[in-house]
Design a protein that fits this description.
heterodimer, A: 265 residues, alpha/beta, Rossmann fold, 11 helices, disordered N terminus, B: 219 residues, mainly alpha, 8 helices, 76% helix
């Protein structure tokens, strides 16, 4: 009876996803294992991330604050978690340099996570007294009220560096253009293709899609985390090969079974 | 302990949510994942208080210390409590309480909040114009191609422009639809989406397995 219930419970139509999940997890774990063993891994340069320290240094020289916006989505969005991870790295640099940091957030859960991460960064940087609870502050729950608050801050305080990392929507251009008008160096990162052109037009550096998720591993320089990125690249190569095979088969009018296998019902 | 417990919670929650994707919602694991989502809502509800405390503390201290713009901070505090307090009071006390039509909350929302949000959104048009001016300057071969493509696509997207393009020889709107939007544009977008999806999956895996702890300020 239990077996019958179990059989019905499993979604056989998602078997393709199980296969992809196993391949993906296997590749990530394998590369992580190799990285742990000390195998050298090559990673291409991401100029936007290399510019973070330089941008914070500029803020320090100018005696102006650094503004970090971890997107406007809730903490259950992986983009927000990626943004919070990068915030930890940025906070560590501001803690070392003694540069003021301002992090406006839109959700209380992000506030709690942000405060924890920034405080930890200041402790690890050996500057626990430099931490102020109000560095990370909840400003508004409404999308455009949040934007108005952040834009107002940019025009009044003129932060030297603005970093936008996370999930952004219609406010992306409002924020980035205001920062541009305020003369700040701007680094943005989002996985939303529809917002990328706005950031590219108004920011000095933009992390596109996967670069946002790679940022925390890239900045950490930890081999174990970099192994995950290599595993991801390996699967991307497999997907590219699968796409090329699909294009050939469909062109030859033989691709129905092949392409149907990839379609999730 | 401060690191171990969150890692264990992240591992269990992540595994349950991943595995539940492959099972019916009515199954045990499906029910468990629904339960987790309810917990998330409850935890989120509790943290709302953190937000209120943060915004009140920041603005209140600004008023007390007479920081620049302290008058606006008073307005912020008044606005927060003028919206929140009447909305949580029972409607049985007065029809002005609660969130129904005719309540104080509803009046403030319809007559102040919504128009202000719409105004902010409307300013986007001006920001787009200034960003487009900077992005579409023909400084190189690539930006010239971008300028020409963007101009033609924008023309096509407005009725008058489409009518103008239809007057020209060849089916330009169909070409734009098939090759520019459905071809080049979509191919690039899908490339970014595939990369981002893999990046998100990779990061999720690192978090579930406890390899990545930077979201807790560790590592």
């Amino acid at each position: 009876m239990a077996q019958e219930a179990g059989g019905q419970a499993f979604r056989a139509d998602r078997l393709n996803a199980v296969v992809l999940l196993v391949i993906f997890s296997g590749a990530v774990l394998l590369y992580t294992h190799w990285a742990k063993k000390g195998k050298p891994l090559f990673l291409r340069k991401i100029p936007g991330l290399d510019a973070v320290e330089e941008a914070v240094g500029r803020a320090t020289e100018m005696g102006r604050p650094v503004l970090f916006v971890p997107g406007i989505a809730e903490l259950d969005e992986i983009e927000t978690i990626a943004g919070i991870s990068i915030l930890g790295r940025v906070a560590k640099i501001t803690a070392e340099y003694g540069t003021p940091l301002r992090v406006p957030v839109r959700y209380p859960l992000v506030l709690a996570a942000g405060q924890e991460v920034v405080q930890q960064a200041y402790i690890e940087a050996g500057n626990p007294d430099g931490y102020d609870e109000d560095m990370v502050r909840y400003v508004a729950g409404e999308q455009f009220a949040f934007t108005a608050n952040v834009n107002g801050y940019m025009m009044r305080e003129r932060p030297a560096t603005n970093i936008y990392m996370g999930a952004f929507f219609a406010e992306s251009l409002l924020l980035a253009e205001t920062g541009n008008a305020a003369g700040s160096i701007q680094i943005a990162g989002t996985a939303r293709p529809e917002q990328l052109p706005f950031f590219i037009a108004a920011c000095d550096y933009t992390l596109m899609g996967e670069e946002l998720y790679a940022a925390s591993a890239y900045l950490s320089h930890e081999p174990v985390m970099l192994g995950g990125l290599k595993g991801q690249d390996f699967v991307k190569m497999l997907i590219a090969i699968a796409i090329i095979i699909g294009v050939i088969l469909v062109t030859l009018n033989m691709g129905d079974t092949y392409s149907n296998w990839f379609i999730q019902t | 302990m401060r690191t171990t417990v969150p890692v264990i919670v992240a591992f269990l929650s992540g595994i349950i949510l991943v595995v539940s994707f492959f099972f019916q919602e009515t199954s045990f694991i499906g029910g468990l994942s629904q339960e987790l989502k309810v917990w998330l809502t409850i935890v989120g509800g509790f943290t709302l208080l953190l937000g209120v405390v943060s915004i009140t503390r920041v603005n209140f201290s600004g008023v007390v210390r007479r920081r620049p713009g302290w008058g606006y901070k008073i307005l912020t505090l008044i606005s927060i409590f003028a919206m929140a307090i009447p909305s949580i009071l029972p409607t049985s006390w007065s029809p002005l309480f609660g969130r129904n039509a005719g309540s104080i909350y509803d009046w403030l929302f319809v007559n102040l909040d919504s128009p202000m949000m719409a105004t902010m959104f409307a300013t986007l048009a001006f920001y787009i114009a200034s960003a487009a001016y900077r992005a579409f300057r023909a400084r190189s071969a690539e930006s010239t191609i971008l300028l020409i493509t963007a101009t033609v696509v924008m023309l096509w997207r407005v009725p008058m422009g489409e009518a103008l393009l239809n007057m020209l020889p060849g089916d330009i709107p169909s070409f734009l639809n098939t090759y520019v939007m459905g071809g080049a544009n979509m191919a690039v977008q899908r490339g970014i989406i595939i990369g981002a999806a893999l990046g998100a999956a990779s990061m999720s895996l690192r978090i579930i397995l406890g390899i990545e702890r930077t979201y807790m300020g560790k590592g």
